[in-house]
């Protein structure tokens, strides 16, 4: 079982302490509130040589004023401003590309304006993985905890997604990363022609780039709790739906081998509940059905709980029986919904 890879993962500490220069890149569109609240935590990282490149992407709020105020205080802040064009409408990939071109350093570290690093060691922990052939570092970005089932589900879905892409990477088959906490080199970006092969897809500046260019020899993971970036979760089901529809659009462009594996993975979970339902109509003894269900549940908990502890979301285990079933229902509905959705946008 591939998920067992993360369960048993133990990072090997290195005696090396090479502090390579780093460019942190943040693309922001109408993010004045988040920039005001979070940007200083990136600018004040405990790291000797880094810059923060903020791409102000056609903002119509007071982002320009906020960034100007920060630039007067922090010399390591670089601002790239994009203005709206009447005829040409661009997505996030264009903004990210300009941020990369403006970056001074080889090692690039990506996050979003609504994120906040878990510690002042975020850059240090992500950067220290660039040894040997490493060109991509996959990090983890959990969502903040609040009240309500929506928040619980968002945090579970984020955990499960991370469990999947981190475990597959450890198995030598990396297929995606999350742009809220992702690092790669400028050389890799330009060598692989950036987002050229999927620029027509609005989303996927993170997962499609990783899917296309990551392999077992150039990709590693970083899950130290101090390396996380915490994000603000969606507040409504409608906004979550919009976000996930956008992500589904990118997923359709994954390599065929990854789409097959992920389809089989989701299909097996769906098939389990379908077969359990069919067996109940066949008047099979209730204790047999419960035994089958609880055997699977126990195995899942044994595998998942250590990973939940590593990713600092162990409280989700109490919701697991409900979340596992609801997650299956959600991806079925999402898959149906995405087949009818044609037009998507970044913000």
Automatic annotation (TrEMBL):
Keywords: Glycosyltransferase, Membrane, Transferase, Transmembrane, Transmembrane helix. Residues 23-154 form the Glycosyltransferase 2-like domain. Belongs to the glycosyltransferase 2 family. Gene3D superfamilies: Spore Coat Polysaccharide Biosynthesis Protein SpsA, Chain A. Its EC number is 2.4.1.-. The keyword Membrane applies. Coiled coil: none annotated. The keyword Transmembrane applies. The chain crosses the membrane at residues 261-278, 284-305, 317-340. This is N-acetylglucosaminyltransferase. It holds the Pfam family Glycos_transf_2. It is an enzyme of class 2 (transferase). One of its GO terms (molecular function) is glycosyltransferase activity. It comes from Arcticibacter svalbardensis MN12-7.
């Amino acid at each position: 079982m591939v998920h067992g890879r993360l369960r048993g993962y133990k990072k090997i500490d290195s005696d090396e302490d090479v502090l390579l220069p780093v460019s942190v890149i943040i693309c922001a569109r109408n993010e004045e509130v988040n920039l005001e609240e979070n940007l200083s935590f990136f600018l004040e990282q405990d790291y000797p040589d880094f810059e923060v490149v903020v791409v102000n992407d056609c903002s119509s709020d007071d982002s320009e004023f906020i960034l100007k105020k920060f630039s007067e205080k922090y010399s390591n802040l670089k601002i790239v401003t994009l203005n709206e064009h009447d005829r040409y409408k661009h997505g996030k990939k264009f903004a990210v590309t300009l941020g990369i071109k403006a970056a001074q350093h080889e090692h690039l570290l990506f996050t979003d304006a609504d994120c906040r690093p878990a510690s002042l060691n975020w850059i240090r922990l992500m950067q220290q993985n660039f040894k040997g052939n490493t060109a991509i570092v996959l990090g983890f970005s959990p969502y903040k905890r609040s009240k309500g089932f929506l928040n619980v589900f968002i945090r579970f879905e984020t955990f499960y997604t991370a469990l999947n892409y981190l475990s597959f990477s450890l198995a030598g088959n990396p297929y995606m990363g999350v742009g809220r906490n992702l690092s790669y080199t400028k050389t890799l970006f330009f060598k692989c022609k950036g987002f050229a092969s999927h620029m027509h897809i609005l989303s996927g500046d993170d997962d499609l780039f990783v899917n296309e260019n990551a392999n077992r020899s150039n990709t590693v993971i970083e899950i130290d709790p101090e390396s996380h970036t915490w994000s603000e979760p969606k507040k409504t089901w409608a906004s979550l739906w919009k976000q996930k529809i956008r992500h589904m659009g990118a997923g359709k462009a994954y390599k065929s081998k990854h789409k097959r594996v992920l389809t089989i993975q989701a299909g097996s979970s769906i098939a389990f509940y379908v077969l359990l339902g069919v067996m109940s109509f066949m008047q099979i003894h209730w204790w047999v059905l419960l035994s089958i269900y609880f055997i699977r549940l126990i195995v899942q908990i044994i595998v998942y709980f250590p990973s939940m502890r590593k990713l600092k979301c162990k409280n989700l285990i109490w919701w697991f029986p409900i979340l596992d079933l609801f997650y299956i229902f959600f991806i079925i509905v999402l898959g149906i919904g995405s087949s009818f959705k044609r037009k998507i946008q970044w913000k």
